[in-house]
Design brief:
InterPro entries: Beta-lactam/transpept-like, Beta-lactam_class-A. The chain is of the alpha+beta class and 266 residues long. 47% of the residues lie in helices and 16% in strands.
Length: 266
């Protein structure tokens, strides 16, 4: 049986499975298979991280189990420019606060902002809703307060995962407005979360962000929530390489495999 699990360290993911069996017991084939999948995914994840860092870039990731709070993480508190990752949580906070009124008054803008990452739609929303506190309340509830004075902000993968944790609490309700947002969050522009994790009966809600051109703001950032039959987790991956989805995907793919293996072990 599974004896214990240990979340990741600040350097590389560390996932310990303690196997407690009687000496005379034959190995459980299912447990052995899970251990093998866990070990292979961890090796691939560490190799992907090393490749990015050896090339001189930063890479950060986190998986946050929404059932028990356990994490798999690396460099999770390094702050990055949010870019368009902020757009989905902003829209979620708006609809959570205003309900049908938000859908009626801003439905087209919300859809364009989330699905197409439309900067003009987001700008229009921000201008029309200037001074409103709903996003500040959501981010504070997540323990990741964000200053959106300039419409975007800096935060870490841990911050984004916790923001998605709060979003997920509301998105999972039977509110018709939550259902409306869930439908569009399953397939958003350039997000690798759905492409990689949205298989095998899993559903995803996610939003990517990217920018290249000025070193201070160079980023590729992707995050959201993965819902599987075994449980749900928030996930976020970021690098300070601009528009580098290849690196994001190289890390996210084994990270998702590792997260799913951990859920299956629970």
């Amino acid at each position: 049986m599974i004896g214990s699990q240990v979340s990741g360290t600040a350097d590389h993911s560390t996932m310990v499975i303690v196997q407690d069996t009687e000496a005379e017991d034959a190995p459980d084939p299912e447990t052995t298979t899970l251990e093998q999948a866990d070990g292979q995914a961890k090796s691939e994840l560490d190799a992907a991280v090393a490749a990015v860092e050896e090339a001189g870039a930063d890479i950060s990731y986190i998986v946050l189990n929404l059932e028990n709070g356990q994490t798999i993480e690396h460099n999770a508190d390094r702050a990055y420019y949010s870019a368009s990752t902020i757009k989905a949580p902003f829209c979620i906070s708006l609809v959570r606060a205003q309900g049908d009124a938000a859908r009626t008054n801003y439905g087209g803008l919300i859809t364009s902002t989330i699905v197409n990452s439309d900067n003009e739609a987001y700008r229009t929303l921000r201008e029309r809703l200037y001074g409103q506190s709903f996003f500040g309340e959501l981010s504070a509830q997540a323990g990741a307060p964000c200053d959106l004075t300039h419409w975007y902000c800096d935060y870490s993968v841990r911050d984004l995962a916790n923001i998605w944790r709060v979003c997920a609490d509301w998105l999972a309700t039977d509110d018709p407005c939550a259902q409306w947002l869930r439908d569009m969050l399953g397939d958003t522009l350039n997000s690798r979360v759905d492409d990689i994790a949205g298989i095998d009966q899993a559903s995803t809600w996610s939003k990517a962000g990217w920018f290249s051109g000025e070193a201070r703001y160079n980023v590729t950032f992707d995050g959201g929530v993965v819902n599987t039959p075994q449980g749900s987790y928030a996930i976020a991956v970021a690098t300070n390489r601009g528009s580098d989805f290849k690196s994001i995907e190289s890390v996210m793919r084994p990270l998702v495999s590792l997260a799913n293996a951990r859920l299956s072990e629970a």
